[in-house]
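Workshop exercise sheet. Pairs work together: one partner reads the sequence aloud, the other fills in the structure field after running the prediction. Swap roles for the next sheet.
Pair: D.N. / O.F.
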Amino acid sequence: MRYLKLVWHHESTDDPQVIWTEIDDNDIEIRKIEHYADGRLGLAGGGQSNGSTELGLWSVPPLEEIKKSPEFSPKEISPADFENEWRQAVSEKRRLNAARRPRVRSNRSKIRVRSTTGSLSRFLDVTPTTTGWDVRTNRGKKIATAPTREKAMKLARDILLSTKKKKSSAGSRIQDPHKTPTRNSERQSKK
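Structure field:
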């Protein structure tokens, strides 16, 4: 086994600038890490591959032959150095992937509040998306978005409570028990 770190001198943003590679006794790549100038990271090997990063199909030439090319600055590294770089790259990839998609902690995504008018139940669905959490009606119409599940649940509760208050106050005839009822004729005569 041998381990190389290659610095690739070029101006292209499509190609990596630094390549870490693990090579077996048959000179075939087993694992590879690619660092790009814009901060992207590519991994291949160990049962995973992402983006344009792939293991080489042909054998890797000896270090002396790579040194002859002015494009590359190769350096042989220790197995421990490669393992440290691999672990950091894998954990960085996991962290980036976890930050992109919301976690579903519970399959309880519906909030149900009984309507004050009639016997129908009104509810909203809170569902995860790639950018956050959507609050939708029971027919699937999106009415709000929130970055976290907790904020989406609170938003859905507030929406349901506000519609509940509006419906109950508009249709109710609740009077203050301390006020004496007045007739329409009394109201008109006071004016």
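Discussion prompt: The chain has four helices and ten strands. What would you look at next?
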